[in-house]
Every structure is written in C-alpha cells, then in structure tokens.
Amino acid sequence: MIVSKLTLLGSAALLTGAIFALTYVIWKDTSEMPAGDLPGWRQTVSQDFTTSAAMGEVGKVYSEEMRGYSGFPDTSGHGIYTPDSVLSVADGVLDYYLHHYEGSPRVASVIPFGYAGQTYGRYSIRFRYDSMPGYKIAFLLWPVSDNWNEGEIDWPEGGLDGPLYGGSAIKGSLAKGPMKFDPPERIFTPTGPGDWHVATTEWTPGKVQWFFDGRLIDQTTLPSGVPDTPMRWTLQAETSDRANGTYPAARTSGHLQIDWAVQYAYAP
To answer: What's the pLDDT score for residue 22?
Structure first.
C-alpha cells in the first residue's frame, strides 16, 4: 500500500498532539489540588495555601498548629525548630527556608491538620526541594498519644540532596529493644531534588502503601506490625541523622516547598 507524505505528516501531528494532550492532563492532575472523595476514601480536609503569610506570620494567618514546633532541638540535636524564621506562604506555596543563623541550622515542623489525628487514612502532598546536603525531611504519621511504641509511618523521608524512601515502625517492637521498621530494606524514589512531585500514603488495617506520582514505590510486609491507633500528620524538615558541628555546612541553605496537602478518612 502506498502512503502519501501528507498522510504520514498528518498521523505524526495527531500522535504529537495526543502525547501533548496526555502530558498536559498528567501535569494538570498533579498540579491542581484533588477535590472530593475517592473509592474507599472520604476527603476530610485539605490545604491549598491560597492566603499569603510573611515570614513569622504563618501562625497568625493559618494556625499555631500550622506553625508547628518551636524553640527546641530537632531529632539530631543540631538543628533548632524556629518556624518564625523558616516558614512563609506566597503564590499558593508554603515555603520552608532552611538555613543557618547564629551558629545553628534553622528548621521547622508543620502539623497541617491539627493534633487530633485519625486511625487509618490517605495522605497526599505535592512538594519539591532544593539540594541541601545535611538537611532531611520526614513527612510522618505520629501517634496522637506520643507513645512511639504504637508505631510511626514515614513517607517521604530522606536527605534533601537525594532520593527519598518510606518506612513503617513496627508497633510493639520498641518494648522489646530498638524500634524495628517494615520493610527492612529501603526502596528509593526514582528522582531527587528539583522537580515537583506528589507523594501519597495509604494506611489501611494491616497494610501501608507508598505512592510517588501515582506509582507504587513500596509497602509493608508484616500486617501485625502496622499501627492501628490514632495518628497525626506531621511535615517535618530537620537536620540529617548524620548532622554534626560542621554538617550541614553554614553556607548550605535552600527551600522545601509544599503546593497542597490533602487528607482522607478510610471509608471501605
């Protein structure tokens, strides 16, 4: 069969248009905050950061919970939670400006939807980060009781100079020695600093799954170890587990940004 150049050109144009349209749909779906319920999930609360807030004003504009922890060391002991010199909101984005001040790294931890928490749920967030060696994130579900032996669910977690991973602290394991995590091996995201991405945690009875831009990255393997008590969502930016007096370097600074955050209740 003879095919004209015009036919070939037309087919190529249609294919290009289809690819462009698909790319646009994917971009549009991830850049706009989800609205409404999903099969098995009931959307309970969302935050699109539509109201601007200057540095030091986030607690007044949003809530003290959005401002988060303040005035004490982070997990490594080398950073200090100082939300009023870290957090601001502009152009629909919550910004963490991670930097040194007066000899200490300045970090912040946001509680986007309050301390009450819930048992089981779906948590989705669109975020990006600059490359900042010595700083890390741990977007986590933490027991409302503050009893770590009830477990902990982390996603995404990792250094802000590379890819990220998920993990679930096995409930009850702390009572028997050091806390153990499931799965035992870390599976990392395919990308690191720079671009915007959507990370989603789905926590159901006996299972936790972690998604990155809609793709399943990892999941728990031990149903009996999955947390089953109320937990609150905490968006924690802090210094690295390997932080010391010179790491992160005083010259290291940059931005972690959150476009939107959405929480769902488990509704089987």
So the answer is: 37
Using DSSP, state whether 73 is helix, strand or coil.
strand
Q: Are strands 135-143 and 231-239 parallel, antiparallel or unpaired?
A: antiparallel
| Residues 227 and 242: beta-carbon distance below 8 Å | no
Query: What pTM was computed for the model?
Result: 0.88
| Per-residue pLDDT tens digits for 171-197 | 999 999 999 999 999 999 999 999 999
60-69 b/e (C-beta count within 10 Å ≥ 16 → b): eebeeebbbb
Q: What is the DSSP letter of 86?
A: T
**What beta strand segments (E) does the chain contain?**
41-47, 80-81, 87-90, 93-101, 104-110, 121-129, 135-143, 152-159, 165-169, 181-182, 197-204, 207-212, 215-219, 231-239, 254-266
Sequence length of the chain is 268
Residue 42 dihedral angles phi and psi, to the nearest 5°:
-115, 120
Q: Residues 231, 20: contact at Cβ < 8 Å?
A: no
Q: Which amino acid is at 243?
A: A
